[in-house]
Amino acid sequence: MPVAGPPPIVTLQGVTKRYPGIVANDSIDMEIRAGEVHVLLGENGAGKSTLVSMLSGLQQPDAGRILIDGIERPIASPAVALEIGISTVFQHSMLVPSLTLVENATLGRPWWRRPDRAGTAAAMAAMAGRIGVSLDPAALTSTLSLGERQQAEIVRALMRGARFLILDEATAMLTPHDAARLGALMRRLASEGVAVVFITHKLNEAVEYGDRVSVLRLGRKVGGIAPEQLRSMGAEAATAEVVRLMFGTSDMGAGAAARPAPLPAEALHTPVLELLALYAEAAAVPLSNIEFKVHPGEILGIAGIDGNGQKQLAEAIAGQAPVSDGRIRLDGAYIDRLSIGARRDLGLRYVTDDRLGEGTVGGFSVALNLLLKEIGAPPYWEHGLERPAAIRANAEEKRRAFDIRTPSVETPVGKLSGGNIQKVLLARELTGTTRAVIFNKPTYGLDLANIAATRARIRETAARGAAVLLISTELDEILELSHCIAVMDQGRIAGIVPNDDAARRRIGELMSGVSRE
Amino acid sequence: MSETTSDIGDSRAAPSVLRREIWGVLAMSLGPVLAAFVLSGLILLLMQVNPFSYYGYVFGRGLFSPTGVQATLTRMGPLLLLAASLIVAFRAGIWNLGGDAQFLMGAVFAAAWTPLMVPHVPVWVALLAGMAVSAGFGALWGLVPAFLRAYQGLNEIITTLMMNFLGLSLASVLVKLVFLDPATTVPQTRTLAVEDRLPTLGATTISSGLLIGLVAVLAVHFVMTRTAFGLRLRVVGANAGAAVHAGLAVPALTVAVFAISAGFAGLSGGVAILGQYGNVRADWNPAYAMSVVPLVFLARFNGFAAIGFVALFSILSIGSESAARRMGVPNYFTLVTVAILLIVLGLAEYWGARQRQKAGA
Amino acid sequence: GEISSIAILTPEAGTDYGWNQQGIDGAKAAAAAAGIEAIVAENLGYGDVRPTLRELAEDKPGLIIAHASGYNTAAPEIGAETGVKVAIVDSPDALKANAVADYTASGHEGAYLAGVLAAKMSRSGTVGIVTSGEPPSWNSQSAAFAEGVKATKPDAVIRYAVIGPAAYSDAAGGKRVTESLIAAGADIIFGQGNGSSFGMLQAVETTPAADGGKVLFIDVIGDKSPIDKGFLLSSVLWNLEPVYAAMIADVKNDSFGSHNYGIALKDGSVALLKTPQIPEEVWTQVMAVKDEIVSGKITVTPHFDAAAVHALVTGN
Amino acid sequence: MTLFTDTFLIALLAGVVAAGVPLLLAGLGEQLSEKAGVLNVGIEGMMLGGAYLGFYVAWASGSTGLGFLAGALGGMMVAALMVLFCVRLGLNQIVIGIALTLGAEGATALLHHVQFSRLYPRLPEVATWRIPGLAEIPIVGPALFDREPVVYLALALVPAFVWLYRRTHLGLAIQAAGDKPAALDSAGESVLAIRALSVLGCGALVGLGGAFMSIAAAGVFVPFMTHGNGFIGIVLAMLARGRPLWVLLGAALFGACLSAATALQVAGVDIPTDVVQMLPFAAVMAVLLIAGRNAKLPAALGAAYVRGER
Ligand SMILES: Nc1ncnc2c1ncn2[C@@H]1O[C@H](COP(=O)(O)OP(=O)(O)OP(=O)(O)O)[C@@H](O)[C@H]1O
Ligand SMILES: Nc1ncnc2c1ncn2[C@@H]1O[C@H](COP(=O)(O)OP(=O)(O)OP(=O)(O)O)[C@@H](O)[C@H]1O
Ligand SMILES: [Mg+2]
Ligand SMILES: [Mg+2]
C-alpha cells in the first residue's frame, strides 16, 4: 500500500507476545496514523490489552518490530512511551490509591520540584470541564468509585497533551451520556492531528467514533475496515461486518430483546427481598431511607450515575458493610444481623464489580476461584478433604458453559484477561440455588457474545424464581432486563418507575434531579 | 506483603516431567549449597584457612559422624515444629515474627510444671501434659497480637515483635521470681530428670522431638494444601478482601491461625525442654524462630522443602562449631556462611523461577 | 588415673579480659604445668552445648571443664552418659565421686576488698555499681563490694544500676548508665560486664566527677591495665589456674569429685590488682583487711540472688 | 543528700538522647524504605556495618567527622546488597534482610576479633556544638543543646522528611513506589531507581545511627553492640504509619523509658530489674492499644516489582 504523507506514528510489524500456554499477540501488523481514531475490537482475551501494554512500554514483544514515525525504535519503558508522546488509559486503574487525584496527575515530574498542586488542580478541572465530567482534584483516590477513577485517568491522559492516546475500555464505566462526550472529544482530538487507539466492546461506539477498525481474534489480527470503507458502509452494515469479523457470524446481538414480560399477579404477593427504611453511614454517600421490594422472578434495575451509593447499597444487603438503621428481609426473615456467609446460605448472592480487589484471589487457580464461596462443601470437599477430581470437573464444566478462555483451569485467575475474570465471577455466582441475586455492573468489560449470554443468564435466574437486583450504569441494559427501575441519587432512591414506554424519559428526569417520586 | 505461592494449583505432572523435576530439584538444592561453600571458602582462603579441611570437618561432624548426625537430628526437632508454626501463619498471610517468645513461653511453663507432675502421675502422662501446657501457653502468648489484628486491625509485625521483646523479659522474670528451683543459686527452673524426658529413638541420643517435628510439618503441609480449612486460611492470606466477600469469618480465622501457629511454637519450646534440656535458665533464648523464618520463606511455605532446609541448617550449625574449633577459626564465621547460603539459595530460587517462566513461554 | 588432656568450654571468646579469658588462660596454664593437652572450645553461646560436650567426650579427655553456669545441667548429664569427668560452676550440690565437681568461682572476698578500697578512695562518699545483668557471680561481687564499702564508711552512698536483662554486649548502654551514676555523685565505679564494660570504661574516661576530678574504675576478673589510660583503680582478679591444677591432680589421684573447688584470697586465686592510682598507705590499709579475711577474722558470705544485692544497696 | 540534682537530671535527659538518637535514625531510615515498598529487616546488619566502619575510620583517622561519614557509608554498603538482591533481582526481602543481618554480625565480629580484641581501643569524647542561648536553659540546655552535631542532624531530619514526603515530587514518587508501583512505572518513573534510592538512604541513616552508637554513645566497638536496636527501629517505623514526627516520639519514648529505668534503679526503688526493663516494650504495647488502630502499611510492601506482571 503506497503511503502518502507522513509515515504512521506507530507501525507494528509481526509483533508477537507469548505468555505461558498462550500466544497473546500473534504476528500482528498494524499502522496507527495521526488524525485517526483507530478502534481495536475483539472478544475477551483476544489480546487487545496485551497490544496496549507493548505500545505503552510495559511489555516487550517476543518477536517483531515497532517503528516510530517510520524509524525502528523499541518502546523499552513507559518513560520512552511518554517521551514519544504515547499516553495510555489502562483497562485497570493505574492511580495510586493513597494519593489524591492531583498528586497522581503530577507523578513523573522531576523529583526535586515542588508539586504544583493548585496549578495542576486547575488544569485538571479545566480538562474535566472540556470533556464534560466533574471531578474533585483534591479527592483521595481510594475514596472514589471505579467509575470516578476512570474519569480521572482519562483527564490525566488528556492533560499530558499526547499525540498518541490509547483508551483501553475507557467507556466501560461511563454513562452513555459521558461516553458520548468522550466520543466527541476523540473526534475533536483526531481532527487536531492526534492518533487515538480506542478499545471498546460497544460496537455502536466503534462505528460512531472510529475512522478505522482492526479486529483481533485469538491473538491474531483477523481483519479490519479501512476509513474509506467505513465511511461508505453506514452504521448498520459496518456493525454487521465487525460482528462477522469478530465472531465469524453476523447475526449476533441483533436487536436487544424486548422488555421483559410483566410478572404474573401471584408473584407479587410475597416479596423475596425487602428493604425497610434502610440507613447506612458511609464516609461520602450515606444511604438514607432506602425502601423497595423485589418479588420472585422480578428484576429490579438500579439506575443512576456511578458513585451515588450503589456500591454501598449492594454491600449493605450482602452484609459487607454495616447498616445503621432499618431492616432487610429475605423470604420474610430478617437478615440484617446475619453474617455474609449466613446470608449466602439463605440464598443471597452478590456479584461484585470489583473483580480483582475482592471478587477473586489473583494467585489462585481458576478452579479454586470458581469455588471460593463454597470452600468445604461437598462434593468438592469431603470431610474437609479436597477432592481434586471433582474440583477440576466443576471447573472444566464452567469453563465450557461460560466460555472462559484460559490455558488451563489451573492457571492463576489473575493472568486471565479482564473479561474472562468477569466470566469466572459470573460462573461462580450463577449456579446453585439462589433466592436473591445482586448484580453490580455484571457485563462491564464483556464482549458482545458474552454480554448476550450473561443477560440471558440473568433472565434465567429470575425465571427460576429468584429476586434480582441489577445495578448498572448502562441504561439500555437496565431497560432490556428490568421489570421496574429504581433511580439512585446521592444515596437515596429518587424514584421507582415501571419499565414502560415512558421509562427512559422518566429515568432521565430522576437522574438529573428534575423530578422526584 | 502477599506471597503468591506457586504450588497452589499443585500441578499433577507426567512421569517424565516428574523425573526432570526431581533432577531439577536436586540441582537446585545442591548447586547453591556448593556455590555458597565456594564463596565462603574464598573468605576462608583470605583468612589463610584451608576451605577443604574446614568443610570436611563441617560435614564430617554434622552429617557423617555417628554422634554428630544424632546431634543434627536432635536439633531438627524443635526447628521443625517452628517451621510448622511459621508455615501455618505465613500461608495465612499472618507475619508472626514473635515465635521466639512463644517458644520461650512454652518452654518455661513446661519446664516449671512437668517436674512437679512427674512424682504424682505416670511419666508419659506428665510428658503429654507438659507438651499440652507448652502448646497452650505458646498459644496464649500469641493471642494478644491475634485479637489486636483480628478486631483492631493492628499490624501483627509490630505487635509480634513487641510481644517478642516483652516475652523474653517475662520469661526471665518467671524463671527468676516464680518458677525458681529453690535448690540452686543459679536462676533456673527445676530440672526434669534425664530418665523422665521424652524417650530417645532406640539406642541413639536422638530425641523423639524429631518425630514430633516431622509429623507436625507434614500434617501442617497436608492441612494447608489439601483441606478446606487450609484453603480458607490461604484465601485470607492471599486476599483478605476476597475472604470477606466470600463470607469467611476472617477475624475468627485470624485468631485460629495465631493460636495454631503460636501453639506449635510453644510446643517447640516444650519439646526442646522435655526432650533435651530438662530446665530453663534465666535469660535463655536460643532464638531458633528467627533462624527458621528465612528457611520457611526459601521453602516457599512447602513442608517438604522446609524439612530439607531445616536439615541443611542443622548440619551446618552442628558441623561448623566443630570445624571452627579444629581449624582455629572464630565461631563467628558460621554466621557468615549461613548468610551467604541464604543469599545463594535466594538467588537459585530467582533463577529457577525465571527458568520456569522461560520454559512456559 | 590417667590424664592426657583436658577440655574447656566457654560461652564467649577468650579475648574479653574477663570470665572467658581467665578460664581459658587458667586451663592452658594448668595443662601446661601438668604436661598435658588443653582443648579449647570457645564462643559457644548459651543455647545448646550438648553436641559440643558429646563431641569433646568422644576423645575421652581426662576432664571437661564447663566454664559457664549455663552449662551446669548439660555437663553432668553428658558426663554421665559418656563416662567423662566434668567440672562445673555454680552447683555445689552436684558433687559426685569420680564424675562431677563444682568450682563456684566467686570473687566476693576480692570484691569486699574492692569495696574497702572504693570507700577509702571516694572523695564524694558516693560509689556506683554497674552490671550488665544479674547472674549469680555478678550478684555475689556486687553484694560483697557493697558490704566492704559500708564496713569502711557506713555513711557512704551506693548507687546501683543494671544496664539490661542480658546486656552483655551493650557498650552504649554501659556508657549511658555509668554516666548517670557519675552524675548521681559517684566518683568510683565498680563495673561488671563483658563487652559492655568497655562502655563503662569509656564513660569513666570521658566524664568528670561532680567535683571536676577523675572518676576511677574498678574492674573484675581480668586485668585491663594493658589498655588502661590512667582510670583503672583496681580489679578483682581471678586466677583459675590453681583450681584447674588441683582438679588435674585429683583426677590423677582418683579423688576427683570428692570435694568442690573455690577461689579465695587465701591462695591468691582471688586478688586485688594494684595500680599506680592507689596510694601506698591506702593499699597498706586494704591489705590489712585482706589479712583479716584470710585469717578468718572477717568472713564474707556470698549472696547470689539479686534481691539480696538490692537490699544491701538500698539499705542506705 | 538529694539524688535528683541538676547534674543527675541532665545525665538522665542526655541518656534519653543517647539512647534515642540511634533509634530515631533507624526508624526514619526504615520508614523511608518501607514507604517505597521495601520491608528492610536487614537494618540491624546495616547498623552494625555503620557502627563498625564508623568506629574504624574515626579511630584510624582520629576524626569523628570522617567516622560518621564512614558510618553512613558502611550502612549504605550493606544496603547496596539489599538493593541488588531485593530491588534489582526481586529476591524475598525477609530472607535477604535476615541474611544481611547475620552476615554483618559475623563479618563485624570477625573483623573486631582480628583488629580490636586485644586492645579494645576507645575514642576520646566527641566534640559538641553548643547552641548559644538555648544551651543556657537549665537542665534541658546542656542535655539537648550542647550535643554532637549528629544529634542536631537527626532532629533536623524529622522536618526534612516531613517536607520530603509532603512537598516534593520525590516524596510522592516514594509513596507511589510503595503503594502502587505499576502506577509510578506507567507514569514514566523508574520504580527501581526510587526504591534503590530509598533503600540506600535508609542504609545511610541507619549506618549513621550505628556510628553514633559506636563513636559517640559508647566510644568503643564490641561485637553485636547494636543488640536489637534495628528491630526496634522497624517497630517504630511501623508504629509511625508514615509520619516522621511519630518516629521521633517513639524514639523519645524508648529513650525515656530506658532513662527512667536507670533512674528508678539509681534511686533504689526496689522492683525486680527485669520488670523495670520491660517498661519500654510495655509502653509501646500500651501506645499500640490506645492509638494504633488499623495501622495501614504500604500496599506493595515486601513485594518485588516486576513490570507487566499480573
Ligand atoms: N502478564 C500476563 N501473564 C500471563 N498471561 C497474560 C498476561 N497478560 C495477558 N495474558 C493472557 O493473554 C491473553 C490476552 O489478554 P488481554 O488482556 O490482552 O486480552 P483483552 O483482549 O484485553 O481482553 P479483555 O477484553 O477481556 O480485556 C489472555 O489469555 C491473558 O490470559
Ligand atoms: N470508604 C469511603 N470513604 C470515602 N468515600 C467513599 C467511601 N466509599 C465510597 N465513597 C464514596 O461514595 C460514593 C459512592 O460510592 P459507590 O462505590 O457506592 O459508588 P458506585 O456507584 O457503586 O460506584 P462503583 O460501582 O463504580 O464503585 C463515591 O463517590 C465514593 O467516593
Ligand atoms: Mg483488556
Ligand atoms: Mg459500586
TrEMBL record, chain A:
Gene3D superfamilies: P-loop containing nucleotide triphosphate hydrolases. SMART domains: AAA. SUPFAM superfamilies: P-loop containing nucleoside triphosphate hydrolases (SSF52540). Residues 10-243, 268-515 form the ABC transporter domain. The keyword Nucleotide-binding applies. PROSITE patterns: ABC_TRANSPORTER_1, ABC_TRANSPORTER_2. This is ABC transporter ATP-binding protein. It comes from Paenirhodobacter huangdaonensis.
UniProtKB/TrEMBL annotation, chain B:
GO terms for molecular function: transmembrane transporter activity. It is found in: Cell membrane. The chain crosses the membrane at residues 22-47, 67-89, 124-148, 160-180, 200-224, 256-275, 287-320, 332-351. InterPro entries: ABC_transp_permease. GO terms for cellular component: plasma membrane. Keywords: Cell membrane, Membrane, Transmembrane, Transmembrane helix. It comes from the Bacteria. Pfam families: BPD_transp_2 (PF02653). It is a multi-pass membrane protein. The keyword Chloroplast does not apply. Signal peptide: none annotated. The keyword Membrane applies. This is ABC transporter permease. It comes from Paenirhodobacter huangdaonensis.
Automatic annotation (TrEMBL), chain D:
Keywords: Cell membrane, Membrane, Transmembrane, Transmembrane helix. It is a multi-pass membrane protein. One of its GO terms (molecular function) is transmembrane transporter activity. The chain crosses the membrane at residues 6-26, 38-59, 65-87, 94-114, 149-165, 192-215, 221-239, 246-269. It comes from the Bacteria. InterPro entries: ABC_transp_permease. One of its GO terms (cellular component) is plasma membrane. It is found in: Cell membrane. This is ABC transporter permease.
